[in-house]
């Protein structure tokens, strides 16, 4: 057993404080922005969240209820207790200009909980964890466990691929997927924030229901649709729509898209030429947010790397040994000796949280020698490289890694 040091406990205390602050603000923001809640329910939730915030701040840093409510619409760093660095909370909002809970707040909340759960399992915080919420199962891990329980590599790959390629769709089609019954239960009704008058739109990048809002402007009101994953919205999964005057489905109008990337990155870049069409919410379901965010979203570059490298004659194995790591890539000339590269793909909003997770696990728990991030996380590579170098791991974007493998194998990537 690892004996916790003062640094370990202090690190945990800081992580826990930031996590409690974010969780309290996030749940309070949900209550404030949910129109279906009765005023009494809203007040009860806000009071509960205020208590959680006071627990995070401690007796030496009081926060009046009215100030807590006002702070929900500002920079979260103002809620972090004195002496604790806000890190990724600095500049973060939980409620955006449209009066909706921000996607980054959702992402960071789950990422911090995964870090805390890992620290607890490694016993670096023995005797410190008391918050029962830190022990709850994360849907993603539950789904993976259910798939592994089959004990069959082919079944695991097929099931996980389905969660990535089919995160939403008609109930009749979802029932045909190669998934254990308990995993099918993770498909639920289309989220409230993704439905407009009974219609929803699949993101052209990940196929999960996009977030729908109505914005007021000088000429009236206009609808907006964008993927809940900010990186996908930045790629072009962002649209406007006129509000229909009858029961007809809305039609999306693309907003100006960013320029396509250079040749290397273009290989993995999604095709956004087709504008999503409205789909009725009735008779359709979508994965719960946690599995979509931490299985579907990072799974897209996993499958894209597998598919593009396989097309170029490179042997790639998905999730070897029931997910010891994400990819086993055999790089090298066609008739020469192959170098086996073990790869873990991560898509974290917070590079500092991912770095802390790698440090807590002393590298990759499955023995991967490469950490690969999506191209839109290129800015995280320097920080992650510094941490991973301590554990003999290398870091690259997906396109950088694909190009490297192709160079080793004597084939062209772009």
Rg, alpha carbons: 22 Å
Task: Give the overall average pLDDT.
Answer: 86
* Distance N to C terminus: 49 Å
As a percent range, the share of helical residues equals 40-55%
Biggest sheet statistics: 5 strands, mixed
Strand content: 5-15%
Tally of helical runs: 15
Number of strands: 14
Poorly predicted parts: 1-10, 124-137
Structural class: alpha+beta
Secondary structure elements and pairings:
Blueprint: H1 6-33, H2 39-57, H3 65-71, H4 103-121, H5 139-148, H6 153-165, E1 168-170, H7 171-174, H8 181-184, E2 187-189, E3 199-200, E4 211-217, E5 220-226, H9 230-235, E6 238-241, E7 252-254, H10 263-266, E8 279-280, E9 284-287, H11 289-311, E10 315-318, H12 320-323, E11 327-331, E12 339-345, H13 351-361, E13 370-373, H14 381-388, E14 394-397, H15 398-409
Parallel strand pairs: 12-13, 13-14
Antiparallel strand pairs: 1-9, 2-9, 3-8, 4-5, 5-6, 6-7, 10-11, 11-12
Quick structural summary:
With 414 residues, the chain is α+β, with helices and mostly antiparallel strands. It is built from 15 helices and 14 strands. The chain has a five-stranded mixed sheet, with helices on both faces.
What does this protein structure show overall?
The structure is a single chain. This protein is α+β, with helices and mostly antiparallel strands. It has 3 domains: 6-136, no CATH class; 141-287, no CATH class; 290-409. 42% of the residues lie in helices and 14% in strands. It contains 15 helices and 14 strands. Strands 10-11-12-13-14 form a 5-stranded mixed sheet, with helices on both faces. Strands 4-5-6-7 form a 4-stranded antiparallel sheet. Strands 1-9-2 form a 3-stranded antiparallel sheet.
